[in-house]
Amino acid sequence: MYKVLIIDDEEPSREAIRILGDWNGLGVEEVMEAGDGRSGLALLREKKPDLVLVDMKMPEMNGMEFLQNVEKDYPNLFTIVISGYNDFEFTRQAIRSRVVDYLLKPVNRQDLNQALRKAVDVLEARKRSESEFIDRNITLNMSVPKLKENIYLSVIERNFKVKNNEAFLRLIGADDPGKRFGVATMRILNLEEVSEKRFNREADLLRFAVSNVINEFAEDGFQSFGFANPKREREMIVVHTMAGGYPEDLEFRSVPFMKKVVSVLEDLFGVRSIAGIGTPVADVSLLADSYERAVAAVGEIDLLKLPSGSVRRGGAAAAASPKETPSIASRIPLIRGAVEAGNSNQVRTLVLDFARKLRSLEAFSLKEAVRILDEFVILLGDAALDYGVPAQKLPSGGAAGLKEVGISSDFSRFEEYEALLCRIADYYAHQIRSASSSERAFDVGEIKAYIDEHYFEDIKISMFTEKYFLSREYLMKLFKQQYGFGIHEYVQKIRMDKAKELLGDSDLKIQEISEMLGYKDKNYFSKAFRNYFSLSPSEYRMQRSDG
Where does the HTH araC/xylS-type domain start and stop, copy by copy (predicted)? Predict the structure, then answer.
């Protein structure tokens, strides 16, 4: 028998949970209540409940602070969070604390009891199991979803030993001989865009939200469990299960299910995605085969005709592939030559010409697009290293590392893929030019010549530090050694010398002279002139005319 603690500052909410919970069916003998996090912690210390349901928005101590205390002092405690869609900070803490489930207000009976059942299942598994593996992971507060995720990942990676881990089979329904399994994979095409716009740049929160949508769409006799693939940042894995029937029945239901998921994700969050369906299997140990076919199905989708929301079955006839895809490697020597010549336009022209050849193909699969992208990044990286670009300025791990240097690798249609290739080429060309220019002898006279010609503009030292890749302190020191003035002093000198010359023309108004020298305010010019010559422009003009 178990003890449950409900923490919520709203009494009607606590009462609703008491009424909706199937406490007898779940084996719960005592349900306690607290009105805020502080009193909740006190009850936790005194009564030691097995499970806590906690609201995130409360006075005194909110749910996030409560979870932080639980994470530190009660690592084995199971928690269920109750909150709303937009509480990103709260959701982040929920992920860190590995809660059993995340319920949205108002809580309904089905969602509440499903979450409670998950918690009770793992509590019972912990009691029953003598397996060292289960003890270790439950001690680390592996919630049921996380536990299921690890089991499925282990199966998909062909590391799961059924005989050694039979206690886990019940958690994923694999102890039922009539159970059918299948895998679908989703690729989130605009992950970085949606993460930035809708999830405070937290990709983990986006993936968490996608998982919630997948897991909420339970159907009669057909269940789904979605989670992010930790080794492929854009990939979501969806395991479908169905009791009884033929394998074809599971596949038949998987296709419309995934179409509904990708449609809802676009409506809710603006997520553009595509999916592949693997062939169903009767034995959970064969789930890896279904996963591999789902991945292959996504990779076969034609980028030239790619609509967001495409769902493809593994084993379906693949799009006609060209006998030979143009090689990006053959363009690298030409791109290097254009970079050496400092011709940015030619670099872009070469990339666009390659993209036109891809566009002219009969079909261009997503798998080929990703392969070329990885190859392009690696080849340009090698070229950049040859030119002396520091390794820390280059992305690591191929195209997957592009965001390290501020390049989004999102693309959901061919035009965006083409633009991405251009951005990558521009970035590497800039890094190569920068490295090359830093090796050339620096002539401080170039700065003086620029000031002489552009004294009326807003001249900042950062313009020169960025152009010559030298520190501010070094540039200022070098300039003063050469000309006896600091850079700002020299700009002022040139302007004042020019001001005296212009004041000699009586037809020019002081306001006009001020603007010609780059001062937007006549009073500011007059003040600067007085500070420099100890008399105002008008006084200087009168003195000059008297002389």
Answer: 445-543
Contacts of 299 (CB under 8 A, 6+ apart): 276, 365, 366, 367, 370
Instruction: Report strand pairing: 273-277 vs 179-188.
Output: antiparallel
Prior bond of 230 cis (ω within 30°): no
> Of 3.40.50.2300, 3.90.1150.10, 3.40.50.11810, 2.60.200.20, which CATH number belongs to 1-142?
3.40.50.2300
Output the CA torsion sign for 333, 338, 340, 341: positive
> DSSP assignment of 482-498, as one string?
HHSS-HHHHHHHHHHHH
pLDDT per residue over 445-481, tens digit each?
Answer: 989 999 999 999 888 888 887 676 677 887 888 899 9
> What CATH homologous superfamily does 445-546 map to?
Homeodomain-like (1.10.10.60)
Reduced to 3 states (helix: H, G, I; strand: E, B; else coil), residue 500 is helix
Q: Give the number of other CB atoms < 10 A from CB of residue 267.
A: 9
What confidence tens digit (pLDDT) does each residue in 309-340 have?
A: 677 876 554 444 445 778 888 888 888 887 76
Decide: residue 480, CB within 10 A, 0-12 exposed, 13-18 middle, 19+ buried. middle
